Amino acid sequence: MASFAEEVGVAWILVPVIVKSKKGYVEGLEREDFQLRVDGRTVAFQDFEQRGEAPWSLVFLQDLSGSMEGSRLEAAREATLWFLEKARPGDEFALATFASGLTAVDVPFTEDTRPLVESIRSWKPWGVTNLHDAVAWLPDISGSSRNVKRAAVLITDGVDNTSRITAPEARDLVRRAELPVYVLGLESGDPFALDKKGEDLYRYADVLNLLATMTGGRYFAVGGPDDLKEACATIAEEMRYQYVLGFDTQATGKAEWRKIQVLVDRKGVQVVARKGFRGTPPAR
Fold first, then answer.
1. SS3 134
2. 152 and 61 Cβ atoms separated by less than 8 Å
3. CATH class for domain 56-240?
4. Which of 48, 132, 177, 276 is 20 to 30 Å from 212 by CA-CA measure?
């Protein structure tokens, strides 16, 4: 694998979009129902994917540090196995684990769930946590995925005590890879909870929530079995009901952070999409 310090080249930008109303996920929208803006300017998108049955590429990034021992690791097993049991034809999965400065791809992308199940059942916690370093590897791990609909599921308690890079650096690398990250925070708490002094009560939850939000995914605070089941079901639903917009960028120009906004021509809907990308201006 390449070093996580390298740039992730961007020439074709994919924007996964979730559209919800009070009645649930909004299906059946057409290309004409969407408006895409980059830095406030309307951009034409050449690629449009709307099929709810389209297969997905899902990367599991599992924390195997010592703090995951016991019920947390059992919850992680339950979550990953749940996704494998719900697999449809064409879905592919990859599995990576991290602890004590090491990140390993235990199973590369495959439609065969048997090696994943075998690997998941062999998990044993050890060492300390290198969360940010592991997150920074996600672009490399997901690079061989073949489906338009793709995401990562990070399962961790959120603690980081050995990473060489910072949380913002890790987020930036993942955003450039156009990979939504769904985070299952096992007993990591509410990112918006404050203590009596008005400071974050769960500082690791805040970091995890930012990672998910900025990449177009979601953070789930998992405190028990019911939370876990609800989180898994929500991620699966969102992946199935994703629309994907795609556009290309200019071959020349300044590479910088550019804000993305997606508008939908429907009243009373909520639109969830990635917040932006780092690269040259859109080609059109």
1. helix
2. yes
3. alpha beta
4. 48
Model-level pTM? 0.78
Phi, psi of 111 (to 5 degrees): -90, -15
When computed from its CA atoms, the radius of gyration of the chain, rounded to whole angstroms, is 18
Q: Within 13 Å of residue 132, how many CA atoms lie on the same side as its CB? A: 17
Alpha helices in the chain (DSSP H): 71-85, 114-121, 131-136, 138-142, 167-176, 203-215, 225-240
pLDDT along the chain (284 residues), means of 10: 42 85 89 96 90 86 92 94 94 94 93 97 90 87 85 88 80 77 84 65 74 87 89 90 89 87 93 85 85
Q: What is the predicted pLDDT for the residue at 37?
A: 97
Cβ–Cβ contacts within 10 Å for residue 95, how many?
25
- The segment(s) of the chain belonging to CATH 3.40.50.410 are 56-240
Q: Alpha carbon of 264 to those of 34, 60, 117, 146: distances in Å?
A: 5, 31, 40, 27
- Closest to 25 (Cα-Cα) out of 250, 218, 242: 242
Specify whether the CB–CB gap between 233 and 217 falls below 8 A.
no
